[in-house]
Design brief:
- The structure is a single chain.
- By secondary structure, the protein is α+β, with helices and mostly antiparallel strands.
- The chain contains three helices and two strands, in the order βαααβ.
Length: 70
């Protein structure tokens, strides 16, 4: 995430009320990015950052820095 917000602000994902399972959240974000036409390389980069996160909180920060989350 930059000071201006997520990398892909046009991609909106509702995560509130969703199970906090990291893989479930990752799936929702990945699916939304694909539907929005985000390049596969950018999706792969985000997924690798989530997989290399050292905690669920760190993984969530990656997701929030990638798309607009509500």
């Amino acid at each position: 995430m930059t000071a201006d917000g997520p990398k892909f602000p046009h991609v909106h994902v509702k995560l509130t009320g969703t199970d906090s399972n990291t893989f479930l959240l990752l799936g929702k974000v990945t699916q939304a990015m694909r539907r929005a036409g985000v390049d596969v390389a950018d999706i792969t980069e985000m997924e690798e950052a989530v997989f290399s996160s050292d905690s669920p909180d760190a993984a969530l920060r990656v997701l929030m820095g990638t798309v607009t989350v509500s």
